[in-house]
Amino acid sequence: MLLSRPIRFPSSKVRTFHVSKLGDNSDGSTWNKAFHSIQAALSAVPDDSGGHQIIVRPGTYLEANLAPAAKGARGAYNSLIGDVDGRLGSGATGWVLVDSSDPQKGFKSWDWWGSFAASDKNWPTGNNQKTFSSLACDRWIFRNLYVAGGDAGLFWDLTDKSGEGFTVVVEDCVGIGRAFGGGVCYPIVRKQEPSVFRRCYFLALDWVGDTAAVLLGGWEKSMPAQPHAVFEDCTMVHPDNAVQLSYASHCARARFVNCRMIVLNFTQPEMGGKATGIICTEKHQSTGRLHVDLEDCFLAGYSVFTPGKDAAAVSYTTKGKVRAYVQFKQPDTVGFERVGTWPAELFSHIAPPMV
Asked: Is the separation of the CB atoms in 244 and 274 below 8 Å?
């Protein structure tokens, strides 16, 4: 896969910007001259030639709806990196926490209010003053970030640019949101250049409507042969759905390798409870389909897929040991190893990781 190869940075135009509350907030060229906000550094990216880098000192940054001034380039991705261990010269250790909360009132659960900008002026509520596409983040790498406090975490929606190619690489990050912890919506597949999420943790806090630890949406009307997104060694935690096909999606495809999907809903249907599946295709549109390739994954929740007719929208393959701990009345699922005893080690992953 292309993104497993070393990334080539051009030599002549590369700029490195620094972000630190200790800098003088001038031009970001050194730690002493560091910008005080991540958005200031993103706005300073000079062009779309690629290879530009932003390094952030550990600390809390009260910012939302981040958007770079320029995309990266094929083979020369831009990068936004938290200096969590001090190796890049910040002199500090710990998370770079990007907090989208209201600084006085707390958690800001509001449509289109998240860590990375996306909005729709036709949406009836929320942050809808303009339409903005997450395509601005195309061919960026995000590493060592902890994002929380808003509607979406490490999540990108192409909005009015849906149907274009789009790729992000996200490594060693935490994404927490009301609706989505992470995901991508409405690109078309780039052959050998999917979005890749490695060693990440995703948590979403709501269970109503279009919400999941990871939300996926594709734009093709038939299932592509390659994935829109690949998840490697990731943990997904949610009240009801670890992975969900977006209601507005056409065909979406994703690959999961060594991932943990933990759903907290083990409902009692006899008492009126409802669960919509660890992998959810509830209320999809007529062209909506989700295909997942699972390798060495462990799933827990009421049922593997959405109960009832909506399950017809999902297809899957399994490879290696793919295990499922589900409600005792659920039937076995072909390709899954049924687990009968409480998976204590799996549930120990519920909490977000420390640095």
From this structure: no
